From TrEMBL:
This is ApaG protein. Pfam families: DUF525 (PF04379). NCBIfam families: PRK05461.1 (NF003967). One of its GO terms (biological process) is error-free translesion synthesis.
Length: 128
């Protein structure tokens, strides 16, 4: 698990290899990730959007951006945690992801970024 705190918001990431499958005569490697967003600040905050940079060992880079996470824009009271799971497909058996969430602080109305630490995606059979 990797963790990082930005402006009182703690991001924790855990990953899992889900398996391989073939689509259009190509092998893909499926990964799941579980993210916990914990509000350790004293203010109410809301996640409004996300940005991801996904890179595999073949230097294929994909960027993903959009509103919320899995169709939600969670509001977090101080001490609350929002956890969700999602996934991605890679063209190689290992890669990495990193990104950020755009947030708003309801107390100050300030918008800010919360960084998602870089985390590795790797198949068990690709590890030494």
């Amino acid at each position: 698990m990797v963790e990082q705190i930005t402006k009182g918001i703690k991001i924790s990431v855990d990953t899992n290899f889900e398996g391989t499958f073939i689509k259009n005569n190509r092998v893909f490697y499926a990964f799941a990730y579980i993210i916990s967003i914990e509000n350790q600040s004293s203010d109410v905050v809301q996640l409004t959007s996300r940005f991801w940079k996904i890179k595999d060992a073949l230097n294929f880079v994909e960027t993903v951006e959009g509103e919320g996470v899995i169709g939600k824009k969670p509001v977090l009271q101080p001490g609350e945690t929002h956890t969700y799971s999602s996934g991605c497909l890679l063209h190689s058996p290992f890669g990495s992801m990193k990104g950020f969430y755009n947030m708003i602080n309801f107390t100050s109305t300030a918008r800010f970024k919360v960084f998602i630490p870089s985390f590795k995606l790797s198949t068990p059979f690709a590890l030494n």
